[in-house]
């Protein structure tokens, strides 16, 4: 009897032990695999077989001095010393002739690189981000095979002209520094595909930026740019242009020559108008222009046949051109916080429209054609001055969300409106209107962010 009672216990215990043994076996197999592949995270273990070491990761070890014996790893290709507390590197670093990647990021000290680092002629990737660097060691410019250089999150105030020597450079990250300009020699980096200069203090770009014919990605947001060079139109491989949080007042015509451009981020600038040539961007899918000072849109916007998202939130638009109805692929339109008093009837031609935000304008009526937006999923009319509601809204069978906050004249019509769109979730709350963010407050916020970064 007692044996029957304890048998299930031993059965469960046996199963648990079997699972644990399998797990331990698999773990040891994985551990052996990594060692066999030459990947080490323990220096003492690595020193037992120095010629087998291909990857050595000593990050997050709170090291203040360079590990002794590291020069013995003649076949080492990847060395990660990030998140430590180094101030200097020994001359022996130059003996690692096969090293391809060196990560010294976030040691929280200006690292003194020895001349011998210039001997690492096979080095392809160097990460010096987050080290409080104010200047760059000359030895870097001898690394002729360098393909990726990360200098982000330092205190650099200028970039030496010697940057032009790194002819094989493909990726350059300068974000989060104190740069006010770039040297004209930047144009010599013919293989550069990826340039990040966001979160700096740039006021101007050199015209030589147009010589970077292989550039595919350029991040320039959160700077102090007031203008762009016409030569930016020569970057024909561009698919994405990120320029938000600057002080741009106009756009160069050259920008509209970027035929492969798919996304433009220009929000939080000081644009008052768009060039007519914007219609040349035939492949444009997203156009983000919120928090500018736009008063009108050019009729040439009708040529953007592939446009899917148009964000004009927080501008000074009083009307929309009738040509907006030609944007047949548009499914997201944000016109919140403008000064619209009327909508063109052509808005009903936007057959793929799913999300339409018209909140916080000065609309008193809606065109009956709004009922033609058969795919409309969300409609926000909050904060307007509507006195009536078109019955054609009842044709919007796919409408799921209808927001009518802060429109007192529609409160008595609640039930009537509910019957028009019984399947939609409605919001009649009488919350306060959103405050319009001024250009000055936006620029002040960006400036404070940059100053805080520098401290």
From TrEMBL:
SUPFAM superfamilies, alphabetized: RNI-like
Chief subcellular location: membrane
Boundaries of every Disease resistance R13L4/SHOC-2-like LRR domain copy: 139-221, 345-406
Keyword Hydrolase: no
Swiss-Prot/TrEMBL keywords: Cell membrane, Leucine-rich repeat, Membrane, Repeat
Pfam family, any one: LRR_14
Intracellular or extracellular location(s): Cell membrane
Record's GO cellular component terms: peptidoglycan-based cell wall; plasma membrane
Ranges for region Disordered: 428-455
InterPro entries named among the record's database cross-references: Leu-rich_rpt, Leu-rich_rpt_typical-subtyp, LRR-SigEffector_domain, LRR_dom_sf, LRR_R13L4/SHOC2-like
Composition bias, Basic residues: 434-447
Protein name (record): Leucine rich repeat protein
Organism expressing this protein natively: Leptospira weilii str. 2006001855
